[in-house]
Structure to design on (504 residues):
């Protein structure tokens, strides 16, 4: 279950990586001759072996092959997740067909292998990398879900009427729901009018409780935008600056030599070089991690990914630290600060942060599949942290998310100059760039800004066409899935009517 595993550890890094890989797969030139070269390469041969063995091997033989072919350098968790995905595909896919295979000249030894399950047509993307020192072994092996390629095949690229956009969106939702691939709500607002507000599926499957537009959903890393706004407000008030170091803001942080080299700006942009807190220790003892101060030792003992300021590496840990900084600078708990200074002024009456054992009215139960080709949905209780916080895991509704987008743009939450600063010095990431707490990409000359959320029991996406204020909110109690892409496609349609703007 590597796709789920990556989502659990890395939140929206999962969705950004999938988007980047899918984009690369679509963009690379493909010819019959090129395919032959790919198949004759070490990675091509391993890819063909993988598909053949999923189709023909017994579970025991497939497991033995997988253990032999994985290089010793592959991390233990990744190895276990890859083997698990193979076993699920062997058991439940009905066999796999190769849809496409590509290599990227910039990444020698890497293969992107798109496959389709014979049972139900569900697609997945294997990303395989050979060990340079042992070309008959895999140093990297990941399986990602892929969206249904036919879902948006008929969607035009040019401007459409709002009525036509609404028709296309409803048809896509209906198609996903009919295949048991969507449970949640989609809301589209443009020109001050709600074009679509559709909900499907079950908020609780055991008792067949249907979802409606009052249903609250966990929204994953969408909450990073709330944290970024809180930091920006404290900068506006003079309690912090973008250049404040982690050491200055949190003298309690255990690794002070490193903290002296990390700034708030770097934490906001995922360039601080920190790792993650979503490691085995966290999930084995999740009841220990309720207050943000509880995380500090765990974070400080994780290996760093790079020197501060050197590269982008999505870090949930960095946003937990930002949340603790909000507490120290404001003298409020993080939850209270967000309620008082973000949710209340934006009119977000149905949003908050819950513990796993809290009873929250209208909050949907989350569900996940064990692997890309699994058939059954399972309740996600055992896969979640004990409490949501500044890195994600809070809950909201589409109505509240739309209200947040409006309050963000109209000056309710931040002054115009501060808001503009959030989008300065963006870092390339995924299909676009990462600003201070927000993803940002160009579509038809317009900026699409927002954030995704993906973890067991959650798929969420909030996207804003910045020049016009059109907004798409997608929430779901199934995840991680590829349905976050539906909001991206809708935003692209809405962007066709936006005036191009070269500046944020």
């Amino acid at each position: 279950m590597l796709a789920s595993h990556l989502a659990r550890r890395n939140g929206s890094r999962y969705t950004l990586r999938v988007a980047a890989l899918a984009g690369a797969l679509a963009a690379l030139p493909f010819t019959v001759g090129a395919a032959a070269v790919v198949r004759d390469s070490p990675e091509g041969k391993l890819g063909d072996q993988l598909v053949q063995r999923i189709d023909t091997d017994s579970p025991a033989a497939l497991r033995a092959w997988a253990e032999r072919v994985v290089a010793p350098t592959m991390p233990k968790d990744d190895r276990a997740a890859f083997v698990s995905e193979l076993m699920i595909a062997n058991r439940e896919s009905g066999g796999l067909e190769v849809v496409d295979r590509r290599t990227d000249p910039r990444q020698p030894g890497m293969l992107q292998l798109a496959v389709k399950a014979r049972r139900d047509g569900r697609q997945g993307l294997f990303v395989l990398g050979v060990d340079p020192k042992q070309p008959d072994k895999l140093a990297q092996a990941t399986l990602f879900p892929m969206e249904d390629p036919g879902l948006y095949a008929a969607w035009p690229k040019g401007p459409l009427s709002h009525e036509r956009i609404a028709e296309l969106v409803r048809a896509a939702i209906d198609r996903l729901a009919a295949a048991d691939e969507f449970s949640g709500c989609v809301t589209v607002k443009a020109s001050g009018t709600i074009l679509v507000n559709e909900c499907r599926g079950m908020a609780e499957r055991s008792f067949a409780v249907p979802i409606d537009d009052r249903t609250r959903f966990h929204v994953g890393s969408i909450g990073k935008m709330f944290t970024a706004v809180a930091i920006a407000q404290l900068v506006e008030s003079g309690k912090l600056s973008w250049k404040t170091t982690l050491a200055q803001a949190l003298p309690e942080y255990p690794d002070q030599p490193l903290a002296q080299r990390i700034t708030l700006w770097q934490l906001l942009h995922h360039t601080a070089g920190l790792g993650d807190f979503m490691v085995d220790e966290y999930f084995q003892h999740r009841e220990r991690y309720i207050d943000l101060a509880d995380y500090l030792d765990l974070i400080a003992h994780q290996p760093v990914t790079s020197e501060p300021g050197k590269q982008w590496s999505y870090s949930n840990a960095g946003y937990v630290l930002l949340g603790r900084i909000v507490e120290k600078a404001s003298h409020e708990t993080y939850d209270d600060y967000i309620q008082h200074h973000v949710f209340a002024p934006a009119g977000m009456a149905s949003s908050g942060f819950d513990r796993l054992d809290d009873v929250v009215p209208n909050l949907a139960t989350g569900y996940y599949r064990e692997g890309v080709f699994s058939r059954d949905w399972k309740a996600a209780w055992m896969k979640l942290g004990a409490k949501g916080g500044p890195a994600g895991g809070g809950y909201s509704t589409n109505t509240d998310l739309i209200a947040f987008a409006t309050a963000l743009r109209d000056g309710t939450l931040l002054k115009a100059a501060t808001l503009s600063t959030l989008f300065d010095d963006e870092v390339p990431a995924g299909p676009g760039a990462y600003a201070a707490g927000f993803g940002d990409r160009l579509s038809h000359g317009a900026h699409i800004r927002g954030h995704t959320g993906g973890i067991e029991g959650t798929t969420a996406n909030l996207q804003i066409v910045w020049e016009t204020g059109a907004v798409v909110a997608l929430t779901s109690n199934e995840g991680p899935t590829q349905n976050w892409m539906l909001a991206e496609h809708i935003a692209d349609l809405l962007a066709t009517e936006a005036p191009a703007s070269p500046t944020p």
Observations:
- Residues 76-92 form the longest helix (17 residues).
